[in-house]
Design brief:
The protein is α/β, with parallel strands linked by helices. It has two domains: 180 residues, FAD/NAD(P)-binding domain; 113 residues, FAD/NAD(P)-binding domain (3-Layer(bba) Sandwich), CATH 3.50.50.60. The chain is built from eight helices and 17 strands. Strands 1, 2, 3, 4, 5, 6 and 17 form a seven-stranded mixed β-sheet that branches. The chain has a five-stranded parallel β-sheet with strand order 8-15-9-10-11. A three-stranded antiparallel β-sheet has the order 12-13-14. α2 links the parallel β2 and β3. α1 packs parallel to α2 and α1 runs parallel beside α8.
Length: 302
């Protein structure tokens, strides 16, 4: 089969791009496989008209709306390899090969939750979160923690004070806290705990305390943390240029360093959210529709 665009990933970015491209009458194959990155989350938040919607319901609605566009095909299938050049990409699926003029990557990132202290995996998405805009309102005024990976982002704990009066910033003993920063945190009434963390202590899906290396338990109901992230094997194999934080570098039209391959969503942005992914997908879809239409016009295909 030949398509105008193959979209890899069926989250908010991929679905949004498929909608824009379908409405532009482009032939699209959206490939969706693997677990959702936000599988542990029970609701999507900070998304206008969809605040509080379960993630799977949001995807189901999006797919049902795509069904009216005959040029869009959605399949639950993985993409194993991408080769070729603009206008002639060869996309290897599980058991078959398709061709495409362009490729849009919406694969998200892989969170290495296992790199966090013991107990994190069991609490991930229920008591341990990344984004306060997505989760903090539902746990207002509870005991928050912030597991800072570096001194440069330790003051994120001050930002969390917007949702609660009780915030502890944990360094895990990985770096020194500059004197000026320590004073700013104290001014905001944020406690700094510098001992290494032994484990997260939970009661079922609920976090209750942080156990330090010396055995002390620091009461904590909610932890915000950003585990290391990495690109999917498919993205790494493409050899795309990454920025200093490991995200795919894109231009103003969401095109990567490899001509004809675009990227949208969490794999290309530190600001990761459903709304942000959908917005980036819409931008990529618009740019792709524009480029393809002019290309088809020049070739006398319209």
């Amino acid at each position: 089969m030949n398509y105008d665009v193959v979209i890899v990933g069926g989250g908010p970015a991929g679905l949004s791009a498929a909608l824009l491209l379908g409405r532009a009458r482009k032939h699209v194959l959206l490939c969706d496989a693997g677990p959702r990155r936000n599988a542990a989350a029970s609701e999507v938040h900070s998304f206008l008209t969809r605040d509080g919607t379960p993630p799977q319901e949001m995807r189901d609605v999006a797919r049902s709306q795509l069904a009216r566009y005959r040029s869009v095909t959605v399949r639950d299938i993985g993409v194993e390899r991408i080769e070729g050049t603009p206008g002639a990409f060869v996309v290897q699926l599980a058991g078959e090969t398709v061709r495409a003029r362009r490729v849009l990557l919406c694969t998200g990132m892989i969170d290495e939750v296992s790199a966090l202290p013991a107990g994190a995996t069991e609490l991930w998405g229920t008591s341990i979160f990344q984004c306060p805009f997505c989760h903090a309102f539902e746990v207002l005024d509870r005991r928050f923690g912030w597991l800072a990976p570096t001194a440069e982002v330790l003051d994120f704990a001050i930002f969390l004070r917007g949702w609660t009066h009780d915030v502890v910033a944990f360094t895990g003993g990985r770096f020194d806290v500059p004197v000026e920063l320590r004073a700013r945190l104290a001014q905001a009434r944020v406690r700094v705990e510098e001992q290494p963390i032994r484990r997260f202590v939970g009661r079922g899906p609920e976090l209750v305390a942080i156990e330090l290396e010396d055995g002390e338990h620091v009461p904590c109901d909610v932890m915000f943390a950003r585990p290391p992230q990495r690109q999917t094997p498919l993205v790494r194999e493409l050899g795309l240029e990454l920025d200093g934080s490991g995200f795919v570098r894109v231009d103003g039209h969401q095109q990567t360093s490899r001509p004809g391959i675009y990227a949208a969503g969490d794999l290309a942005s530190m600001m990761q959210s459903a709304l942000g992914g959908a917005a980036a997908g819409a931008l990529a879809g618009t740019a792709l529709a524009h480029a393809l239409t002019f290309e088809q016009a020049a070739a006398g295909e319209l």
